[in-house]
Structure to design on (341 residues):
């Protein structure tokens, strides 16, 4: 996109980790007005250490989002690589990401995380913005079954890493403290958005947390934006082991019963034709959504391909999601629409 060209539609992507990274790499192909709203409950690795030692919002997922939106100019690429670099060795810095330390340092110098993120975004020439979903660090608490001899007995598990790796089955998650505040700029971004994207990502620890922050949930319910939910390519070991695509939607609806979504985007190969698609269609309808299938995966992997995902999102943006036998329309950007099945 050249100087003077319109930035494109306002896109907001909510999530965390590698799932949000994939969404942002796709969204940046459609617009330079992209806002990432990032989970802040990580308690593992470098982020967990900085959170525990300094009382800061865990910076790791925020750093990943900045890297996803960073300029690809060669002089910026060195900064992006450095931001993502992780120290080796066995000393006090071992395992820390350089970017995590920079965000932590800037937060202390500038006085708040949003200002720190905006400063790093300026250095990386990010055309968009990265925001924490809440101005305070949060913790995830889950009700988990299957950890006791009686499969009906539920145990409470606390902490993002513990929830993500539990051998039991997660039934429900909460945030601590309860009813946390949302970052005001994140709420404003959702309110003015043309497209809001939720997912893919760790369902209970990266996706659902957004819909249990009251102000974010209210903004998602009230925004005039088109809302798209991107399903994972496969269930994740631990928190969603054994989950069908339909089950993912039921769990989301359980946590946010008033949330309505326009589109559910599913990889063509991840849900076979037949009864499973019928069940998924009915579950989506309860959210107010239609299901669209497209090839959005990197060949032979369980990760999303940025170009393929961008093409599918482009059709959603132009409200050309295929329904039944309806023919896809031309993309609003002039590119050929993706092939829908």
């Amino acid at each position: 996109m050249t100087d003077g060209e319109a930035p494109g539609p306002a896109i907001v992507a909510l999530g965390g980790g590698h799932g949000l990274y994939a969404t942002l790499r796709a969204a940046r192909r459609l617009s330079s007005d992209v806002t990432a709203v990032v989970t802040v409950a990580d308690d593992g690795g470098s982020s967990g250490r900085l959170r525990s030692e300094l009382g800061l919002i865990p910076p790791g997922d925020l750093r990943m989002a900045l890297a996803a939106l960073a300029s690809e100019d060669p002089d910026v690429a060195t900064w992006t690589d450095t931001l993502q670099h992780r120290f080796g060795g066995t000393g006090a810095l071992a395992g820390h990401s350089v970017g995590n330390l920079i965000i932590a340092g800037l937060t202390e110098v500038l006085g708040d995380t949003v200002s720190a993120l905006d400063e790093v975004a300026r250095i990386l020439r990010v055309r968009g913005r990265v925001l924490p979903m809440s101005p305070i660090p949060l913790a995830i608490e889950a009700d988990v079954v299957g950890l006791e001899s009686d499969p009906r007995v539920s145990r409470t598990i606390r902490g993002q890493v513990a929830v993500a790796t539990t051998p039991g089955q997660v039934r429900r998650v909460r945030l601590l403290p309860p009813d946390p505040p949302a970052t005001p700029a994140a709420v404003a971004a959702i309110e003015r958005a043309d497209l809001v994207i939720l997912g893919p990502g760790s369902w209970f620890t990266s996706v659902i947390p957004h819909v249990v922050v009251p102000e974010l949930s209210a903004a998602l319910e009230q925004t005039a934006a088109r809302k798209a939910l991107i399903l994972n390519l496969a269930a994740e070991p631990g928190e969603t082991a054994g989950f069908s695509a339909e089950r993912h939607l039921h769990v989301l609806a359980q946590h946010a019963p008033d949330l309505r979504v326009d589109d559910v985007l599913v990889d063509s190969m991840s849900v076979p034709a037949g009864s499973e698609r019928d069940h998924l269609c009915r579950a989506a309808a309860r959210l107010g959504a239609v299901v669209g299938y497209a090839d959005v995966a990197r060949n032979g992997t369980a990760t999303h391909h940025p170009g393929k995902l961008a093409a599918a999102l482009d059709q959603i943006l132009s409200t050309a999601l295929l329904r039944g036998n309806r023919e896809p329309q031309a993309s609003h950007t002039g590119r050929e629409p993706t092939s829908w099945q």
Remarks:
- The chain is about 40% helix and 15% strand.
- The beta strands are 11-15, 34-38, 128-132, 139-145, 154-158, 169-176, 195-198, 226-230, 263-267, 290-294.
- Confidence is low (pLDDT under 50) at residues 320-341.
- The longest strand covers residues 169-176.
